Structures are given as C-alpha cells and as structure tokens.
Amino acid sequence: KKDIPVANFTIHEIHCSRNIEVCCYCHESIPKTEMKKHVESEHVQVTCKCSMKIEKSLLEDHEASACPLRPAVCQHCDLQLAFNKLHEHQSYCGARTERCSGCGLNVMVKDLKEHPRVCG
C-alpha cells in the first residue's frame, strides 16, 4: 500500500508476501509475526459498562461519545450524572425556581439566563 521505485518492485513484492499480512478486520498491513497480537489487542470483543459488546479499539470513542452511561453535566446545577439520566434530570432541575435578586420574583432556573432582559 505504499509507493516504491519500479526497480525495487519485485524484491519488495516478494518481501511483502513473505512477511506482511492484511488484517481481515481493519485492512491494515501488519507483520505476520505480530498479527495474532494485533487481533488480540485491537479487535477482541470487550463489554462496555453499558453491556454493549464492542471491539477494544473502538471502546474509548464509544465511552466518550456514544455510551448511554458516559458522564454528562447538568447545564443548570453542574451535577455530573449518566448521559441517559441527563434529559430527565435537566427537565426537573430547570423547573426549580430561584428568587431574582433584582426584582424579587421567583424565576425558573432554566429561564435565569434570559430573565435579566425582562427584569429591568
């Protein structure tokens, strides 16, 4: 999968066919002596804390951006909780009220950022 000089092609092709193998999972060129280690370290199936089975090499991205149990922070109270609980918590949390120090009215937490425009 690399450009090589024409003069070296035959020798290179013989070397590659003898020493290099293409991974059937990721299609990367891997030395034959390291293929077993590559498959075991990169393509073995592991179970995420959310019970989803996934390739080990993809686990980090899954945990960061797709796992329903990944950490998430409430926009209203900065509490950290699981992503799959965030929507329900924010609905409840944003509906709480706090007294406005400017006008004295009780304002829902989700509206506090916009309230100063109408508060006067």
TrEMBL record:
InterPro entries: Innate_Immune_Apopt_Reg (IPR051986), TRAFD1-XIAF1_Znf (IPR049439), Znf_RING/FYVE/PHD (IPR013083). It holds the Pfam family TRAFD1-XIAF1_ZnF. The keyword Cell membrane does not apply. Keywords: Acetylation, Metal-binding, Phosphoprotein, Zinc, Zinc-finger. GO terms for molecular function: zinc ion binding. One of its GO terms (biological process) is negative regulation of innate immune response. One of its GO terms (cellular component) is mitochondrion. Residues 78-120 form the TRAFD1/XAF1 zinc finger domain. Negative feedback regulator that controls excessive innate immune responses. Regulates both Toll-like receptor 4 (TLR4) and DDX58/RIG1-like helicases (RLH) pathways. May inhibit the LTR pathway by direct interaction with TRAF6 and attenuation of NF-kappa-B activation. May negatively regulate the RLH pathway downstream from MAVS and upstream of NF-kappa-B and IRF3. This is TRAF-type zinc finger domain-containing protein 1. It comes from Nothocercus nigrocapillus. The gene is Trafd1_0.
